[in-house]
Structure formats: C-alpha cells, structure tokens
Amino acid sequence: MNDLMNRSIKIGSNISLIFENLITDDSSITDESLLKATLALKFSNKEAEKEKLDQLKGVENQVWLQVGENDRVFSTLQENLEGQSQYSLGFNLTNLMLKDLQSGITLFAGVEHPYYNVRTQEIPRTVSDSLAQDLSK
C-alpha cells in the first residue's frame, strides 16, 4: 500500500494517476524515457457520474507532466481500460527532463480540459524519486 502511495498523483478531486512499475523481464521494451500510468476517474456522486464522464470525453489526451521549467509533456493513450473510467497512458520524457527529474527537480502534473483544468502543487519528493529510480534502470 505504501508503495502505491509513492507511485500515485492526485490531480484535483476526481482524477488520479497511478504509475506502473517499469521493471520488466521483456527485453524488447527499450524505451527508457516512457513513463506509464493508469488514469482513474472517480466521482463521489454515482448519479452524476455518467454525465461527468460524458463531459470529460478526451481527457485522456489532456493530462500532462512537467519537470521544472521544461515544457509540459502530454499523455498518449496506450489502452482504454474498463470503459470510460480508466485509461493506460504514456508520457514520453526528453533526455533533459529525465536528467532533471533524476537530479531532484520538481515534478508537476495537471489536466488541461475545458471541464477539468487543474494543476497540482509540487508532487511529493517520494513520488518523483520513485519515478526517477524506475527511469534510471
């Protein structure tokens, strides 16, 4: 559970990113700059959930990460999981972003959608350190 906390980013009250573990036995995966995450949409009001999901169509392409002063990197959809409420996303970081993240530069995340425009405060160091550790392997 604590490991999951170190690999999750909450963006506002309805969206979370849960980063996958990049350690793999599959030697064909060589993209060291790709961070993979599951985007989860959750709403406390179940009656309004369908309407809110309809409003947020396309949100999976509007999620971004930013390392320090580097440009924002928007997500690319890898796979739609469980209908409309979960998506597998990828974030392709540049070499400079990787170096900055590994050297402790602040990580930010957000969503730039007409119905959900939210930017996080600075991501906790434990999360960014965990992601940087994955990318250095």
What do you see in this structure?
- By secondary structure, the chain is α+β, with helices and mostly antiparallel strands.
- It contains four helices and nine strands, in the order H-E-E-E-H-E-E-E-E-H-E-E-H.
- It has helices at residues 2-5, 49-55, 95-102, 125-135; strands spanning 8-11, 15-19, 34-41, 63-67, 73-74, 76-81, 86-92, 107-113, 116-119.
- A hairpin with a 2-residue loop joins strand 8 (107-113) and strand 9 (116-119).
- The longest helix is centred in the last third of the chain and has 11 residues, at 125-135.
- The radius of gyration is 15 Å and the shape is elongated.
Structural class: alpha+beta
**Span between termini:** 23 Å
The strand count comes to: 9
Mean pLDDT over the full residue set:
85
What is the makeup of the main sheet? 5 strands, antiparallel
Helix content: 10-25%
Order of helices and strands: HEEEHEEEEHEEH
- Uncertain segments of ≥5 residues (pLDDT<50)? 23-30
Alpha-carbon Rg, integer: 15 Å
Broad shape: elongated
- Give the spatial strand order of the biggest sheet: 1-2-3-7-6
Strand content: 35-45%
Continuous helix count: 4
Short structural summary:
The chain is α+β, with helices and mostly antiparallel strands and 137 residues long.
Give short descriptive properties of this protein.
single chain; about 140 residues; alpha+beta; four-stranded antiparallel β-sheet; 9 strands; about 35% strand
